[in-house]
Amino acid sequence: MAMPMLIPENLMKKEGELINGFAPEVAWVTMGGNKQLEERMCVRPTSETLFSDYYSGVVKSYRDLPLKYNQWCSVMRWEKETRPFLRSREFWWQEGHTVHATAAEAEKETRDMLGVYEKFFREYLAIPAITGRKTEKEKFAGAEYTLTIEALMYNGVSLQSGTSHYFGQKFSKAYDIKFLNKDNDWEYAYQTSWGVSSRMIGALIMVHSDDDGLVLPPNIAPLQVRIIPIGDDEKIAKLAENYEKTLQKAGISAEIDTTDRSPGFKFAEAEVLGVPARIEIGMRDLEQGKITIARRDTKQKILVDANCDIEKEVRALLATIQNDMLARATARRDQMTYVAKTLAEFEKIMNTQPGFVHADWCGDPECETRIKEIRGTKSRCIDENAPLVCGKCVVCGRPAKHHVIWGIQY
Description:
Strand content: 25-35%
CATH topology of the largest domain: BirA Bifunctional Protein, domain 2
Largest sheet: 6 strands, antiparallel
Number of strands: 20
CATH architecture of the largest domain: 2-Layer Sandwich
Number of domains: 3
Structural class: alpha+beta
Helix content: 25-40%
Shape: globular
Strand order of the largest sheet: 4-5-11-8-7-6
Radius of gyration: 26 Å
Distance between the termini: 30 Å
């Protein structure tokens, strides 16, 4: 589904919490050509208002529900500080919007989509993201609550990587989204929205890559294997073609580098592009009945029989690379995950080696603000499934209500 880029101001203002929350980041259009607009329009920062306006016209009965829509689009938020991929003013994202007949169904959607995002990060990007609920201060403007996945970058700085919001009836009351329920009574609908953005590309780079270029997990790599013939020998060329056909037929993306550049250049280019595996076929190895397979993630080179089952060999290697990348990222995240029981411990961690810090919180926004004074540290999420660390707020020492994971953010 596609919605307009420009949103009239009156439509944005219908749900006051949303417009107030986004006001500092909204870009406004005030001129059309050389004429002043009668009403200024904002460049889409998010699309809840547009979808809600649409729902108000099409939702009439419980039989119409649920409605689940997805759109890929660009949005604009006037960030004070920009960082490539991670925090730009205009970015590309996927945003989903749903409307339901019951709160239970909408809340299930909210949690299900968080699970989809967490699974995608873990199984495809090989990034071990944590999940939880945002505090009231950090939740999406207009939401009843926000669920989030948070990833830790190589340097210990955290990145909000995807969110799923439960709106309850806030937007349906503001935009008059009502339906006749099974009892033939009018009722306001229940809504959700969720999204991930091109920010995940930044996460992919910062978690896995190195100074030689990209390191891509096989499950997300557009090209999984590059075959590099060394020399012009006909036997080498024929073997390379056989490998390419076999791998492609098996559903493994593979291609031969047929350019006339030097082998060293070809190896370096494959590394820059993050191709997970590289097959090198040279006469010196072939005389021994061998070929070389190089791993991008570890730079390891493996000699295998030239007459091996290349599909089986490569498939097993790609699975190993995928698993190893996740294991290394998980180990690194765990090494930079800490526990703090006092404010002094908290400050020492954030000032020496930042990462995820588990610490209890009383729920008072003033204590959350006090934490922000330590290098801009923010609550990443409330871990709803974990017991309290010690039962006392890390800031004020009063009885704690929540086990919170904190961190410096991009």
